[in-house]
Amino acid sequence: MSVGSLVLAASAWAAPTSAAATLTPAVATGTNSWYRGPVTLNLSATDGVGGVQRLEYRLGNAAPFQTAVSAGAPYPGALAGSVKITQEGSTTVGYRAVSGDNSVETTRTITVRIDTVAPVVSWPGIVAGKVGHTATLIPTRTDPAPGSGGVFIHKMWIDQTETTPLPVRTSTLSTGAHTISVVASDAAGNAARFDQTFVVTTSFGELGTLIDGFASDGAIGAGLAADLRAKLAEAASLAEAGNANQAKRALNQFVAAAQGGSKSGQVRDTLVGDARYLQQQIAGELPGDPETGMIVTPVAGPDPIAPVVPLAASTNFPGAKFRVLYFSATKGFRHDHIPDSALLVQQWGQQHGFDVDVWDPRLAPASLTSTPFTSGADLAKYKTIIFSSPVDGTNANSPASADALNAAELAAFQEYIRAGGGYVALHGASDAIHNVAWYRDLVGAWFTNHPGGQNGEGTCGSCINVRVNTEDSTNPATAHLPKTWLTIDELYNFDHNPRAEVHTLLSLDEESYRRSLNSGNAATNPLPLMGGDHPIAWCQEYDGGREFSLILGHDRAQYSRDPFTQILLAGINWTAGQSDANCSTFRQTRTLITSGAAAGTLTPESAAAAAALLDDAQAAYLRQDYNAAGTSLNKITAIAGSPAAGTGEARGELDRQVRQLRSWMSSLKNS
């Protein structure tokens, strides 16, 4: 028999074929594609010739295979089964089928990520429940192996007062008992609350170090610092010699000097408190230590946010009063909030009476089929256009790609704005069209970078905690907000500070996150930010149109938080001309004066005088001297009131804008 005939006569046995394995639940029960409990691995395979003998799986590439399900002879042509996976960590699960003749399929894999254990937080600077008065406390955060990692501190309290997660300088605390509380979660969303109670102590040496620090910071003068050091040294010497009463008298003199010479309440209280502590210590009268230690309480962590789908390419709601365009087409980085904000805007349209068109091919079929940026006349059907993170490749930090709008589309958009159109810039709208100065002035500032966060936040791995300042509480977009408030979001830095050109509504308190515990090594190496003044939301009337920028909004969770969504809705209504708001700017007023002088509607003398006064007012505003700003603006209204200054129409418009600026300054002064 030939070799060829032997081959032809061979049995038709072949390895079985597995279907792709699936998991139950199909969607991860934790965040970042992690499960927070057991997972069922579902397997199935077919073999129409020899039948399927068994299905096997292994937990890790080096682990032995185990049988998930098996069948007896005669072996069925199809076999299915499941097995519960409980192994913690990210596991490459291999699976394969074995046929009736023991032919083995090539191993296939699926990744199963399980983490059921909450992270652990400890404070290594606290020893036996005590810490000195010159320490900086930075917590150690670990996720027990093999965990999901990325531990994030969601909330932090010091003695029940909420703060952003920062290192704790014990010099800001009084001597005695305190409690630091944090809620931390890992990348899977397992979370716990950690309440650490401890006692702050002090010593003659630490009080001397505090004096040096206060003097170095300028909190106390050099003369007072020298006097305090001398009295402290005298008290320490007397105490060491066993002269307790004389040491206590020296400390009384220290207290009198501190109370009489320190202007800062916290500094004064610290100096006095430490001296009183030392007096009690010398006399053996310190109170007994309270109970200290850590209490750990499981709490609910962040849950995954389900994917959303916008309603339709064009909504046409009964009774709608106007139409808006939602634009989120991307040619660079794509933000995952885009579908969420698109759906939210459409739902608002239904609730508040406006129709919505969506332009973003990646949201098909909810998107228009072709660009609406064809001409200013065509765009005129929209009362406002929402740029929802249409990131392109014009930022040097992004992959090279086309502009968000090509030249013809940009020309149409400019025509629309100059005809009085509205524009809302949401989050990554400031990371687009970086090569067109007009767009920078419209959006207010270009994105450059942002600090990173930890995946344990759950819904935004690049987000960190921040305190936001409400600067203009008279604006409809911010009237519902407290003067300062806490949120978690991605925090942009810009190519320049836009404050001088725009009407700032919200700003970031950079000190609330410059040393954030949730941003890399920022606790010990402070983040490079914007120099302390950091606008993050603003409005303006620019080049004929109405512009509103809200640069928060990276986190998908923001679109279910009413305080945030009210800001955005008010911005839509104002830019669409459906509500009034004071969005006056010094740039807008300066343009009015310059154009009036060029057109001859303001006399050269009055225009020059008004421009100089406006410069003075702006300088005063930037140094937060709102009284001086108001005084200069009053003088401009006097110029506008003089018939000799120009035409009635030009003077009237100048008067209107200056009064808006003055009203803004007044609201800032009273806030």
Automatic annotation (TrEMBL):
UniProt key word Signal: yes
Cross-referenced Pfam families: FIMAH, ThuA
Domain FIMAH: 206-279
Signal peptide: 1-20
Keyword line: Signal
Domain ThuA-like: residue ranges: 323-575
SUPFAM superfamilies associated with the record: Class I glutamine amidotransferase-like (SSF52317)
Keyword Hydrolase recorded: no
Highest taxon of the lineage: Bacteria
Protein name according to UniProt: ThuA-like domain-containing protein
